[in-house]
Amino acid sequence: MSALKFAGRAERIKASPIREILSVSNRPGMISFAGGLPAADTFPEVDALSFEKGDLQYGPSEGESYLREYVAADLKKAGWQVSADQILILTGSQQGIDLVGKLFIEKGTEVAVASTTYLAALQVFSLYGADYVPFDVDSVNDAIAQTKPAILYANPTFQNPSSEVYTLQQRQSVAYACEENGSLLFEDDPYRELCYEPCERQPICSMTSHGSWVYQSTFSKTVAPGLRIGYLVCSADLYPKLLMLKQASDLHTSRVAQRLVMNILHNEDLAIRLEKLRHKYKAKRDAFDQSLHKHFSHLAAWNKPSGGLFFWLTLNSDKNIDTRQLLGAAVESGVTFMPGEPFFADGRTASSCFRLNFSGASTDDYDEGLRRLAVIFEKQMLEC
Ligand SMILES: Cc1ncc(COP(=O)(O)O)c(C=O)c1O
Predict the structure, then answer these.
(1) With the CA atoms of 69, 74, 80 and 84 taken in that order, what torsion angle do they form, in degrees rounded to the nearest 10?
(2) H-helix or E-strand containing 213?
């Protein structure tokens, strides 16, 4: 029997650490601070979910026109005039990362990323063969002018994992750097609506005047991730290509899921839904911060996030600690967290950083979960 020969890119596939951790997070009794899971009690009532028989037929690759128009109207409320024709409904915004990767990246293509980057974006970009160009947002133009990367990928509002938010000036610099140097501006914005304090949230793509850009967001964090409905908006030059790639990939996003999202948003006005979510998550964030102060103040440093779903912590240690090494002990003690290493594009093996999600776990479990984690981290720090 001859040996199978995989495509070169298959050698670059790495298992997503988050999906592996999520599989243990679902064990009964496990306290999970690992994934970016929305609180399950914010999901819509299942009885309210309905679709139409026509939704069982094949549908348009662009997505349902009612949902594209809804998204365009929603962006308009945020002060950004885009046409429904520029919108492509995605099977989760993760699909947008894959489509952009397919369109632009081959072995050796340079992609500019921030010092920490959403790990599943790195997973996709690496699969297509990306080389990374790190940029610091305060000197973004220097980095981009020097290397002229094909893509600049940014998650400027409540970044996953750091929860960082770019200021207006930083946003303008990113838009300028991409336009001046002919790099695609790829803005990934799933957390924009989960805002607990006033801060700058204007999409960078809305600040461009020429140049190519892709903006994407999702209903995963505001409605329900299991529906797998996201969307992208892009400059006119890119739409036909992205549409063909979408067609080749899955023909179209589930019509049933698109209808469910639309019906949910008809039953419950999005603005009201978002208000409730912000209220709930703000209280959860504050409770989590308090528990962190109780158990981690002598062990780590962090900023309280002004939005999004994550705390990003750095251990107070002179040594760089590989936080992946602590995951086994954490799981054994019934708690999961997300080690920091997979969020660094430079492939560092020890970062002393880790990410904790506060939306998924019950507030009642914060204290106990963080107490158990602190014991494990403290032991490691003493042994180092
Ligand atoms: C920055 C970022 N982009 C994209 C996604 C993918 O979201 P989805 O595919 O559920 O829309 C996530 C999910 O956590 C994310 O944090």
Answers:
(1) -10
(2) strand 213-218
Question: 8-43+272-383 domain in CATH 3.40.50.300?
Answer: no
Task: Please say whether the structural domain 50-267 has been given the CATH code 3.40.50.1820.
Answer: no
Q: What is the dihedral of CA 33, 35, 36, 40, to 10 degrees?
A: -80
How many CB atoms lie under 10 A from the CB of residue 10? 10
- Which residues have any ligand 1 atom within 6 Å of their CB? 36, 92-94, 118, 155, 160, 188, 190, 218, 220, 225, 230
Which tokens belong to 288?
Answer: 């989590």
Question: What's the CA-to-centroid distance between 191 and ligand 1, angstroms?
Answer: 9
The residues spanned by each domain of the chain are 8-43+272-383, 50-267
Which residue type does 368 have?
A: E
Give pTM, 2 decimals.
Answer: 0.96
Among all chains, which residue has been given the structure tokens 């093996």? 349
Distance 192 CA to ligand 1 centre (A): 12
Average pLDDT by stretches of 10, the chain with 384 residues: 84 76 85 94 84 95 98 94 97 98 98 96 96 96 96 98 98 98 98 97 96 98 97 98 98 97 92 96 98 98 98 94 94 95 93 97 97 95 83
